[in-house]
Write a structure and sequence with these properties.
rod-shaped, single chain, mainly alpha
Length: 105
């Protein structure tokens, strides 16, 4: 499944090249749709970037947790804190993907 932003880009490109003749034309009947899609694309990219950031943070926390579990198993407080952080991030990411109709993990 491709990111939503790629689908929006495909439609924008179609409008630009097939409906506007390859150049933006502010007098074309498709202008309002084109501009609305550009605005939507910015919003979707921001959401996708936020999700990528959460995924990267999740991976970092999981690596840190594995380090503590293997090398410092007596540090129960740090391990518990990292497990909570991982669970919270996992839940946020799963909710984001559920809203988008995608799978997490």
């Amino acid at each position: 499944m491709q990111p939503t932003s790629k689908s929006i880009e495909t439609v924008i490109d179609y409008i630009l090249h097939s409906e506007m003749g390859g150049e933006f034309d502010s007098t074309d009947p498709w202008t309002a749709t084109y501009l609305s899609l550009k605005e939507l694309l910015d919003k979707v990219r921001d959401e996708e970037d936020g999700c990528r950031d959460m995924c990267a943070e999740y991976k970092d926390r999981r690596a840190e947790l594995e380090h503590y579990e293997i090398r410092e198993p007596e540090d129960k407080e740090s391990i518990a804190k990292l497990k909570r952080e991982c669970d919270e991030l996992d839940s946020k990411i799963a909710n984001y993907h559920h809203e988008k109709g995608a799978k997490w993990k």
